[in-house]
Specification:
four-stranded antiparallel β-sheet, about 20% helix, about 250 residues, five-stranded antiparallel β-sheet, alpha+beta, 14 strands, 6 helices, single chain, Immunoglobulin-like
Amino acid sequence: MKVPREWVDLPQWLGDYYLSIEINLEECWLRICGYTTHQHLKEIGEHDFTDETYSIAVEELTEDLTAMWMGIELFPIAKPVVEALPVLSETEIEGLVKTFNQSNFFSPRLDVPFRKWGAFIDSDTGNLALAFRQIDASRELTVEAAKIIDLGMQLGNKSVALLIGLTREYDNNIGVRIQLHPAAGETYLPQNIKLGLRSRSGKVLQELESRSQDNLIQLKRFTCPIGKKFSVEVALGDCSIIEDFTIEMPNYE
């Protein structure tokens, strides 16, 4: 059994128990091979620094899941304690976002020391950037804009995060995705906040309005040539902010 290090050594991600599951997609079945505890995985498991995982032999797993349920009910284990993560500055976070966007590696998690990576994904900006990033064999995605927008008293001193994602298409046009996320640790967007796409002449091309308990809203993806200009409007009640953008795609050698 192999477990990514994030689920073992990050305070907000670690688990008490880990299940080993075998899946056969062709025959449409899965089998639970056994389980282990966080403590056992740390003590017995082998840490592979090349892919930042912990692995444990099948014979070290406990097969009887009843034992796990009885242990939870009768002998609850203490929450595992791991080393706290450092707190990154905004400058460090911005530098890491740039590093990951320019990376030629398959996985950005291996580009930097693990504790720095862990601190990054544990940060609000880090989670937003990772949620927006995709790895696609036929396209190259970069996060060109991740901007915090404050609409003042209309939001009750809350902010939202506007994210713009750019994808290089086969015909050299650029695919654009626009999302609005809650920021500053909030779970949901303010209700009735609007996200709109405008042409440079001011014509409304798309518009969405958040409902209660929306954790993001996203405009329909569109494509345009490099050099194209457009505007994004974020509005709540009588308060609105318009951000102007010009599509520019950097070349990665």
